[in-house]
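Thread: quick sanity check before group meeting

JM: Hey all, I'm pulling together slides for Thursday and realized we never actually wrote out the predicted structure for the chain we discussed last week. Dropping the sequence here so it's in one place. If anyone has concerns about the input, flag it before I start.
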Amino acid sequence: MRHIHSICVFCASSNAVDAVYLEAATDLGRRMGEAGIDLIYGGASIGLMGAVARGVHEKGGRVTGVLPKFFKKKEIEYGEADELIVTGTMRERKAVMDERSDAFIVLPGGVGTLEEAMEIFSLIQLKQTAKPLVFINTDSFYDGIIRHFEKLVELKFAKEETLNMYALVESPEEAVEYIENFRPPEVHSKWI
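JM (edit): ok, ran it. Output follows.
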């Protein structure tokens, strides 16, 4: 088993979401902090982003935020971050988050969260990364997208093994445990 030093967490920056999602984000952050796993994330102080960062700090963990410069103008950055990296673009932001992370966890989120997660999913499928990707299905949030992944396989737009390229778990505890015990699945060619 390799030791995981850092996990990138993709999640919502909305404060308007139900408390169950904020609680899951805080729980994940606390578990990461307790395990000595650094957080790499989008750098915001609001929504699930802020909740996971504060959870990591509550347990003495390290937080690295990666924020595109146009977000700095919105004054939403997590000022308590141990390191705040400001990038020129969203694409540069994702590259830094990928480079600095040993694994990826996807909490509930909106379009940006899905876009980030799908890029990592695609990189796994194309054998450009073997890092674990875990969706935390808080309150059945990801049921619909998982059904869509299954439909891709059913209609032959993706191979059956695609469904083994990520994990779907119900809790932050299961997500951290999965990552700590991760063994990369065998990924065959996307095309054959």
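AS: nice. Helices lie at 19-35, 47-58, 69-72, 90-100, 111-125, 143-154, 172-180. The chain has one domain: 6-140+166-180.
JM: adding both to the slides.
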